[in-house]
Specification:
Largest sheet: 2 strands, antiparallel
Strand content: 5-15%
Mean pLDDT: 83
Number of helices: 2
Radius of gyration: 36 Å
Structural class: mainly alpha
Distance between the termini: 93 Å
Number of strands: 2
Low-confidence stretches: none
Oligomer: single chain
């Protein structure tokens, strides 16, 4: 049995016979298996292309950023030292040990 479609003009178009399988989605072609060397070369080429897109800071910006990072590390270290110095005897007293 054939199913027909009717468009705006009233003409009928046969679509397909019932019970007939239609083709499914196309299967992707199997990927070529590259060797380890080709994969490494491709990776390094992609890395080089990405590094070309990178904007590098100039020297004054780099020095300013380094100072900010070193300052943050110093402040964080000082904070942790103070907290450790205060909490070590307190925790030692709570658990019944001697602390420092």
């Amino acid at each position: 049995m054939t199913t027909n479609l009717t468009d705006k003009n009233g003409t009928t178009t046969p679509t397909r016979k019932e019970g007939v399988k239609m083709a499914g989605p196309a299967k992707p072609a199997p990927a070529k298996k590259d060797g380890s060397y080709q994969k490494l070369v491709k990776y390094l080429q992609e890395v080089q292309a990405e590094l070309r897109k990178t904007t590098w800071p100039d020297r004054p910006k780099l020095i300013a950023s380094t100072k900010v990072v070193l300052g943050a590390v110093f402040v964080t270290g000082l904070y942790l030292y103070v907290i450790d110095t205060i909490l070590t005897p307190v925790i030692g007293w709570i658990v019944g040990g001697r602390g420092r």
